[in-house]
Structure formats: C-alpha cells, structure tokens
Amino acid sequence: MMNINLAKIFSLLLILIWTQERLLALKAKLLATHVLYRHGDRTPSGTFATNTVQESFWPNGYGQLTKLGQMQSIKLGSYVRKRYQNLLNSTYIANEIYIRSTDTDRTLMSAYCNLLSLYPTLEINESLTMEMPSMLVPWQPIPVHTLPRSIDHVS
C-alpha cells in the first residue's frame, strides 16, 4: 500500500515538473490565479471547565487573531506579492482582484493584514518584528467581501 502511494506521488511530481517545463518551453503566460489561505495564528477557540487559563486570559477572547497571526498574514501578503509580481498591478485596481472572507474577526483581520503587504503603500521590511509601527500611513483600504454566516456555505 505504501509503495503504491509513493509511486503515485512520484508520478504526480514528474507530471508537474514536466508540465512546468512544457509551459516554459511554450512560453505560456500566467493570466490569473486563485489564492486560498487560512487565517493566521489565533487564540484557542475554547477550553475545558477546570483549565486555569480561561477566556479572560486572552485580551480579545477566544478564537481571535494574535499578533503573531497578524505578522504571519502580512508576511504571506509579501510572499504572494513577490510570487505573482508579474500578474498583480502595483496598486489596487477594483476589477483586477476580488477578496472573499468568512464573516469572523480572525479571517477578516487576516485578509486585511494580507492586503497590507499585497498592495503596500510603504516599504515593508523583511525583518518585520512583532511590534508594528504605531501607524502605517498612508494605508490603502481594499474591500473584503463576506456573506452572513447563516447563508455562507464556505465556513
């Protein structure tokens, strides 16, 4: 069983490598992409009754994005910016990108942090630390679309 799975993975890897080389040989051009990602680091979504660390321990409560999660999302935006620099415009253009999030604080905050570095208005240093500058201005607001939880079939 294990050898069959490894063989399938190896075959798939060879196909992907061949496909990428074939596309390069054909001088194919990437026209569009979908990027799916999960929120960054978050606080626990709950705990058991006898745990000494309860929700009051976390400044924003259970299930919220942490500072580390914010930094992860900002760094992801920088990575996507570099990876797709030939596809993305240097500034936000409404009809070129659509951002969708589930309607929870942590996913919305992750999307906004990601967009902060996807369309930066200031140079974002690679050695970003947990401490953000007190104000990153000018900031370009970019819409993040959601649906109410009651009709959102993604979450």
Automatic annotation (TrEMBL):
Domain of life: Eukaryota
Gene Ontology molecular function terms on file: acid phosphatase activity
SUPFAM superfamilies: Phosphoglycerate mutase-like
Signal peptide positions (record): 1-25
Entry EC no(s): 3.1.3.2
Pfam families hit by this protein: His_Phos_2 (PF00328)
UniProt catalytic activity: a phosphate monoester + H2O = an alcohol + phosphate
InterPro entries referenced in this protein's UniProt entry, alphabetically: His_Pase_clade-2, His_PPase_superfam, Histidine_acid_phosphatase
EC primary class: hydrolase
Classification via Gene3D superfamilies: Phosphoglycerate mutase-like
Keywords recorded for this protein, A-Z: Disulfide bond, Glycoprotein, Hydrolase, Signal
Family: Belongs to the histidine acid phosphatase family.
Name used for this protein in its record: acid phosphatase
Organism: Didymodactylos carnosus
